[in-house]
Amino acid sequence: MSADALLSLFLPDDAATTQLGKLLARYLQAGDVVLLNGSVGAGKTHLSRALIRQKLGRDEDIPSPTFTLVQTYETDECEIWHADLYRLSHPDEALELGLDAAFETAICLVEWPDRLGRFTPADALHIDLKPEGEGRIAQISGGRSGLVAQLKADYDGQ
Fold it and tell me: Does position 53 have pLDDT exceeding 60, yes or no?
């Protein structure tokens, strides 16, 4: 993996995680899938909420999809699907939710993406969040061509 293909960031607090979500929102478009990996409390939902609010252009209550499995949001550009697959027991259940179609037409934020199994999109953006002291480490890789390089250049320019 080249240096351009991986962006590793230390996010010292929730404010930094929010800023990363806002930055990601600038680049995501219909058909982009973001796979959010990390333990419980690693910041997956926090990052998703910041990204969704930025895309919506307003501060709105963004509930966790833990119990509903999927929450959807309409933006001027496209629909956003926020999925939490923790409670799924088989990859076929992701298809029952309609995720396969959403992967083509919406921005999809997927927590616990290991539950997708063979349905994991090959060109998905991977964000791995790991606790580090009071903050967290975010490792970003994959996605459509040039996306990580764009994020890196923009983040370094902040």
Answer: yes
Task: Using the predicted structure, report yes or no on whether residue 104 has a pLDDT greater than 90.
Answer: yes
- Angle (deg, nearest 10), helices 147-156 and 14-27: 130
pLDDT score of 44 more than 60: yes
Helix locations, the chain, DSSP H: 14-27, 44-56, 92-96, 99-105, 147-156
- The domain spans of the chain are 3-156
Is the pLDDT at 3 greater than 50? The verdict is no
pTM for this one? 0.91
Q: Which CATH number describes the domain made up of 3-156?
A: 3.40.50.300
Under 8 Å between Cβ of 28 and 21: no
Give 72's contacts (C-beta < 8 A, 6+ positions apart): 79, 80, 81, 82, 106
HSE-CB of 156 using CA atoms within 13 angstroms: 9
Whole-angstrom Cα distance, residue 31 to residue 89? Answer: 25
Residue type, 33: V
Distance CA 28, CA 33 (A): 9
